[in-house]
């Protein structure tokens, strides 16, 4: 019975004299390796050279601030609900008087934690966020660490710095062409 | 310097030869035997017989002793597995060895080694080309017969290694 | 102050010793780079410019590793094994003629060869045949079954391939008529290279050289897929380093012997022409010395090519199975070598040399 037509019938024949002399086959193999000797090397010398990220790469999260440097997050919990890996926990609090320059909304996240060991970097939190507060950066990865608790990122490591110059530019950095292509694709999905 | 080298080599040869007999471990025996061959090769070199020295190393130390070592390594020789030899065997061995010693002494007792005459001594006598000329002129027939014997042995070993028809071909 | 010829010769011996060690050191680096290049990688390039200090880093690593003795091992022989491997490997480079003579202004003539013996070829052959003892003793003394298997394989392989190698050399001897490596080199200096007379012998010789140096495709004594590490499974620290080092020295010596015996040694095309031109313009001394130095450089170029060839083969061919190895040695190389002797004899008989 033959299920596919890809089956190859292999028969073990005794080697011919040419094959037993080994040398022709050896020469052939040596020429192949010699060709590779001069071919372009695939190595990326890491610290000096870095592999470019994919344009849709989703890396380490960041909690954004708005134009006036206030935290955008309002601790609505939608990201935690959207998260399939249940990596996000938060505690909401009410903004006190005098804190308007710190938090944009009246309700804000007192603590906001993402467990990077649970996170699968799917980006659903980013899509769920109504305040455009959480983004997955295109150029940063969660670095390896020795202890488990070091992977639980609190607000101290998630919220971007107040100084705009020190901030990562944007969640996803696209070239104009890529942005256009993405817009077209999104339009297609919506239609 | 030649004399002291001679004494040193003789000392090494005798000591390691005794080591061959007295070593408990057969591997050590084999290694001592190799050392003995080296010392003897050194003697050949002192006698200006370079070819003999090199061939002694290649054939005895390089090939035959490798096979000795090869076989001895396969034997599981521990003190526990050593069979208890009966007293009769020990006595027989002692008598046989003693007889051999007796015969050797008897044979060598009256030998008067002919000292080399410095005036007529040919220092090149042990060189390869001299040896070759002697072997291929004076002793041509025995030499060729021996070489045919070796050739037969080699062909025989190749024949033994040949695959028989119908043998499994992995 | 007059420097006696013997002192110069002592200097040459030291230089040969040093060069052998240096080349073996950098062979470890070259092996990794060649392996990487053949596999589309770049190899070690971190220690120093282009990774040139890598051998140093390796040595430091090996020296600082823990010195380990397996339980039940024979301590003396366990240490003796790597020492012997290293010693026999180093001994062989002593008789290789690295060049013709250098003549100084006062008429002193020194040979670029550590020692000249008139049985140089037999000497190399003998020393190479002793090389297997280091492996055997080390493998046996480790008190490890894998090591023992590696040692036993090494012994059987060395003895089998020595035979075919010796037969290939006999045919070469019939052509050259001398055992001295220097004279063989000089003959090729004045005539054609021996590869012209002995192409078949060279192929047999190079295959046997691979087997004798335990290099892939004949590295069964240390094949890691079957025997973990073979004879050096239990070795650590610099004792392990000595074994690895001895292998590279053996590769260097094998390359040097092959270049000398079959590829003209220190001769290069057009040397007589160059000599004549220099003789007319610069005088005899300068002409002779220039040709000698160029010849030495050529010899090293040949040696480096063969070292590269060893590595190239290693990273191309898979390892032979043990029965294939024995079959190749006994039923192919050995009869071919005998046929080669017969053919050579017939040629010499009918055509002269």
Automatic annotation (TrEMBL), chain A:
Superkingdom as given in the UniProt entry: Bacteria
4Fe-4S ferredoxin-type domain sequence ranges: 64-93, 110-139
Cofactor binding note of this UniProt entry: Binds 2 [4Fe-4S] clusters per subunit.
Keyword Mitochondrion: no
GO molecular function, one term: iron ion binding
Localisation: Cell membrane
Catalytic reactions on record: a quinone + NADH + 5 H(+)(in) = a quinol + NAD(+) + 4 H(+)(out)
Keyword list, A-Z: 4Fe-4S, Cell membrane, Iron, Iron-sulfur, Membrane, Metal-binding, NAD, Quinone, Repeat, Translocase, Ubiquinone
Broadest EC class assigned to this enzyme: translocase
A Gene Ontology BP annotation from the UniProt entry: aerobic respiration
A Pfam family matched in the record: Fer4_7
Required cofactor names: [4Fe-4S] cluster
Binding residues for [4Fe-4S] cluster 2: 83, 119, 122, 125
GO cellular component, one term: plasma membrane
Membrane association type: Peripheral membrane protein
InterPro entries, A to Z: 4Fe4S_Fe-S-bd, 4Fe4S_Fe_S_CS, NADH_quinone_OxRdtase_chainI
Gene3D superfamilies reported in the protein's UniProt record: 3.30.70.3270
Listed EC numbers: 7.1.1.-
Chain residues that bind [4Fe-4S] cluster 1: 73, 76, 79, 129
Assembly mode: NDH-1 is composed of 14 different subunits. Subunits NuoA, H, J, K, L, M, N constitute the membrane sector of the complex.
Similarity remark: Belongs to the complex I 23 kDa subunit family.
Function: NDH-1 shuttles electrons from NADH, via FMN and iron-sulfur (Fe-S) centers, to quinones in the respiratory chain. The immediate electron acceptor for the enzyme in this species is believed to be ubiquinone. Couples the redox reaction to proton translocation (for every two electrons transferred, four hydrogen ions are translocated across the cytoplasmic membrane), and thus conserves the redox energy in a proton gradient.
Name of the protein described by the UniProt record: NADH-quinone oxidoreductase subunit I
The gene coding this protein: nuoI
From TrEMBL, chain B:
Enzyme Commission number: 7.1.1.-
Catalysed reactions, semicolon-separated: a quinone + NADH + 5 H(+)(in) = a quinol + NAD(+) + 4 H(+)(out)
UniProt keyword terms in alphabetical order: Cell membrane, Membrane, NAD, Quinone, Transmembrane, Transmembrane helix
Topological type in the membrane: Multi-pass membrane protein
The keyword Membrane appears for this protein: yes
Positions of transmembrane segments: 6-23, 30-47, 53-75, 87-108, 139-160
Annotated localization: Cell membrane
Similarity field: Belongs to the complex I subunit 6 family.
Name the record gives this protein: NADH-quinone oxidoreductase subunit J
Origin species: Solirubrum puertoriconensis
Automatic annotation (TrEMBL), chain C:
Keywords on record: Cell membrane, Membrane, NAD, Quinone, Translocase, Transmembrane, Transmembrane helix, Ubiquinone
One Gene Ontology molecular-function label: quinone binding
Subunit structure: NDH-1 is composed of 14 different subunits. Subunits NuoA, H, J, K, L, M, N constitute the membrane sector of the complex.
The protein's role, per its UniProt record: NDH-1 shuttles electrons from NADH, via FMN and iron-sulfur (Fe-S) centers, to quinones in the respiratory chain. The immediate electron acceptor for the enzyme in this species is believed to be ubiquinone. Couples the redox reaction to proton translocation (for every two electrons transferred, four hydrogen ions are translocated across the cytoplasmic membrane), and thus conserves the redox energy in a proton gradient. This subunit may bind ubiquinone.
Species, as recorded: Solirubrum puertoriconensis
Organism domain of life: Bacteria
HAMAP family: NDH1_NuoH
TM spans (from-to): 6-29, 76-99, 119-141, 161-179, 191-211, 242-265, 285-313, 325-351
Cellular component aspect of the GO annotation: plasma membrane
Assigned protein family: Belongs to the complex I subunit 1 family.
Catalytic activity: a quinone + NADH + 5 H(+)(in) = a quinol + NAD(+) + 4 H(+)(out)
Membrane-topology descriptor: Multi-pass membrane protein
Full protein name: NADH-quinone oxidoreductase subunit H
Protein localization: Cell membrane; Membrane
InterPro entries: NADH_UbQ_OxRdtase_su1/FPO, NADH_UbQ_OxRdtase_su1_CS
């Amino acid at each position: 019975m033959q299920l596919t037509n890809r089956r190859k019938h292999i028969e073990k024949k005794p080697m011919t004299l040419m094959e037993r002399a080994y040398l022709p086959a050896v020469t052939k193999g040596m020429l192949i390796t010699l060709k590779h000797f001069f071919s372009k090397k695939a190595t990326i010398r890491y610290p000096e050279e870095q592999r470019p990220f994919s344009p849709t790469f989703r890396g380490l999260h960041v909690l954004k601030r708005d134009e006036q440097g206030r935290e955008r997050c309002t601790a609505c919990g939608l990201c935690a609900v959207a998260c399939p890996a249940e990596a996000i926990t938060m505690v909401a609090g009410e903004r006190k008087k005098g804190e308007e320059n710190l938090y944009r909304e009246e309700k804000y996240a007192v603590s906001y934690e993402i467990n990077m060991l649970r996170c699968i970097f799917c980006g659903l939190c980013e899509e769920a966020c109504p305040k455009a507060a959480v983004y997955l950066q295109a150029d940063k990865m969660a670095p390896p660490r020795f202890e488990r608790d070091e992977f639980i990122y609190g607000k101290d490591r998630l919220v971007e710095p107040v100084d705009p110059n020190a901030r990562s530019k944007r969640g996803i950095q696209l070239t104009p062409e890529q942005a256009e292509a993405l817009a077209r694709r999104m339009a297609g999905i919506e239609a | 310097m030649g004399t002291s080298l001679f004494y040193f080599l003789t000392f090494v040869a005798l000591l390691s030869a005794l080591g061959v007999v007295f070593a408990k471990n057969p591997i050590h025996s084999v290694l001592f035997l190799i050392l003995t061959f080296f010392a003897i090769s050194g003697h050949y070199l002192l006698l200006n017989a370079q070819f003999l020295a090199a061939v002694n190393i290649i054939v005895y130390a390089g090939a035959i002793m490798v096979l000795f070592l090869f076989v001895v390594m396969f034997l599981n020789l521990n003190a526990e597995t050593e069979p208890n030899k009966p007293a009769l065997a020990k006595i027989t061995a002692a008598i046989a060895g003693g007889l051999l010693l007796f015969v050797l002494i008897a044979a060598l007792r009256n030998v008067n080694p002919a000292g080399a005459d410095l005036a007529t001594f040919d220092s090149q006598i042990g060189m390869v080309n001299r040896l070759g000329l002697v072997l291929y002129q004076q002793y041509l027939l025995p030499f060729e017969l021996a070489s045919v014997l070796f050739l037969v042995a080699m062909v025989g070993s190749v024949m033994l290694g040949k695959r028989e028809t119908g043998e499994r071909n992995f | 102050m007059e420097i006696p010829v013997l002192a110069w010769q002592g200097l040459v011996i030291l230089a040969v010793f040093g060069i052998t060690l240096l080349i073996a050191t950098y062979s470890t680096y070259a092996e990794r780079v060649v392996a990487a290049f053949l596999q589309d990688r770049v190899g070690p390039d971190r220690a120093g410019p282009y990774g040139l200090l890598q051998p140093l880093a390796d040595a430091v690593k090996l020296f600082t590793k823990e010195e380990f003795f397996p339980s039940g091992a024979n301590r003396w022989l366990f240490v003796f094994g790597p020492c012997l491997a290293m010693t026999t490997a180093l001994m062989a480079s002593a008789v290789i003629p690295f060049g013709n003579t250098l003549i100084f202004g006062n008429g002193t003539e020194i040979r670029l060869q550590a020692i000249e013996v008139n049985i140089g070829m037999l000497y190399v052959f003998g020393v190479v045949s002793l090389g297997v003892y280091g492996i055997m003793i080390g493998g046996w003394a480790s008190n490890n079954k894998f090591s023992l298997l590696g040692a036993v394989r090494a012994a059987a392989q060395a003895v089998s391939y020595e035979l075919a190698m010796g037969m290939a050399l006999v045919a070469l001897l019939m052509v050259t008529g001398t055992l001295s490596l220097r004279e063989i080199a000089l003959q090729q200096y004045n005539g054609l290279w021996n590869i012209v007379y002995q192409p078949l012998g060279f192929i047999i010789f190079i295959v046997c050289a691979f087997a004798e140096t335990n290099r892939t495709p004949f590295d069964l004594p240390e094949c890691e897929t079957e025997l973990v590490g073979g004879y050096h499974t239990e070795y650590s620290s610099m004792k392990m380093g000595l074994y690895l080092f001895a292998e590279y020295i053996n590769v260097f010596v094998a390359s040097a012997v092959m270049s000398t015996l079959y590829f003209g040694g220190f001769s290069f095309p057009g040397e007589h022409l160059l000599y004549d031109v220099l003789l007319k313009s610069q005088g005899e001394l300068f002409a002779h010395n220039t040709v000698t130095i160029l010849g030495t450089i050529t010899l090293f170029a040949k040696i480096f090519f063969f070292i590269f060839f060893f590595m190239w083969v290693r990273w191309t061919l898979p390892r032979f199975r043990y029965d294939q190895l024995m079959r190749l040695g006994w039923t192919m190389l050995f009869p071919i070598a005998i046929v080669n002797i017969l053919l050579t004899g017939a040629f010499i008989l009918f055509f002269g040399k």
